[in-house]
Write a structure and sequence with these properties.
The protein is mostly helical. It has 3 domains: 16-241, no CATH class; 285-358, PGBD-like superfamily/PGBD (Muramoyl-pentapeptide Carboxypeptidase, domain 1), CATH 1.10.101; 378-439, Muramoyl-pentapeptide Carboxypeptidase, domain 1. The chain is 29% helix and 6% strand. It contains 13 helices and 6 strands. It has helices at residues 16-26, 103-115, 151-165, 175-180, 230-233, 238-241, 285-293, 305-314, 324-336, 347-358, 392-401, 411-423, 434-439; strands at 120-122, 141-145, 182-187, 190-193, 202-203, 223-228. A hairpin with an 8-residue loop joins strand 4 and strand 5. The chain is elongated and about 105 Å long. The two termini are 56 Å apart. The structure holds zinc ion.
Length: 442
Amino acid sequence: MPVPAPIRAAGPTVRWARRGLTVAVAAGLLVAVGTGTAVAGGTPDPSPAPSSPAPSSPAPSGSPGPGTVAPAPDPAVPDGLPAALEDPSPYLRQVSCDPVAKPGATALGRLLVATYPGTSFGVGRACGADGIASEHYEGRAVDWMTPGRDPLGAARAAAVLRWLLAPDAQGHPFALARRLGVMYLIWDDHIWGSYAAEAGWRPYATCASHPDPSWDTACHRDHIHVSLSWAGATGRTSFWTRHVAATDYGPCRPADLNWAAPYATANPVPCPARTALTAPAGAPAVEVALVRDSGATVGPGSTGPVVTAVQRALGVDADGQFGAATAAALTAFRAAHGLPVGTTVDAATWRALLAAAAAPPTQAGALRPPPPPAGPLTLYRAQTLHYGSTGAAVRALQVALHVTPSGWFGPLTQAAVSRVQAAHHLPVTGIVDAATWLALGA
Ligand SMILES: [Zn+2]
């Protein structure tokens, strides 16, 4: 979930919020609480923060203390797991738009719900909906709902985190998290990343400053967020297959688009580092949104801000729902730009959309309505010319009238202007006014 801005004043942290983390300490984790680097904008910060012991904080009055709830059961572990296991996943940032739930994410959600009846989970989310990078857009993040303010919910969360992060019988740390391809976890104001495991749990964004219940979802006090590696999301890690999966770096974005195409095949090579593309300063809002969302694959059935950006560019009702009208407009746009028939906004379509937004249109189907044609007289149509006028405007007028372009408004020019006025049923004055300029095509 996104972390709302702005930052507000710090407040106390309640005891229930520590319970899951206390159990994690018992499982051998370092816990960073109250210090270290906040996670800007909710995007996981791959750099480790310094770790420190968890402080104890007094329980608020009326709050149940630890030990009043029976331990929650652990999820089942498959038989026959190999002794070897996956390395902790590197940070594989969300780069594509494909929110269909991936099989490994769905299987993990179902396992948790089967273990803890009455809970639920979600995976996919409309691309761009959070305003930050999110593996939900790629169908590889699971939000498992468990209320941390409820003793049972907190006990279940503690059990899941302990289960994921405990060492196995051979002493491999974070054993099941690695076998499932867990990339990072967010729970109860804190984030744990496999790519920064030595730093343990780090403060998540500004949540320490927002203990009030209105922040429970943003600060993950009512659900555990689990982002999975591509190998974990596609269900190819040893927890599911009993075969250790190699790191799969997933799709890589091209240099000229901000988003990658959806996952297609395993990729053993890290993606090149890319900087985010932005529209030129002063670009219209339509172009700004197009550049921001460029490359994000959407099509019929897609929803969210990316769809809205495409709709605005195509000039159809921008309701964020990719329906029949959007599909029809896209079909026409693709045809006008020489693209194969289709209703998917793919990389080729994005490039055509960006080109059309950045340049004046030259053909049907372009983005903007055509500006009035700029002819050689357009520059001068605010001027009034008459006998005796001189200069570039007169010269341009004379060219248009097929009079020798002397730059001086004499009798020949006056006569030619009068002929044009008569032909267009204008008052024959011999003076070039706005109506005459219009008649001349300015
Ligand atoms: Zn989430």
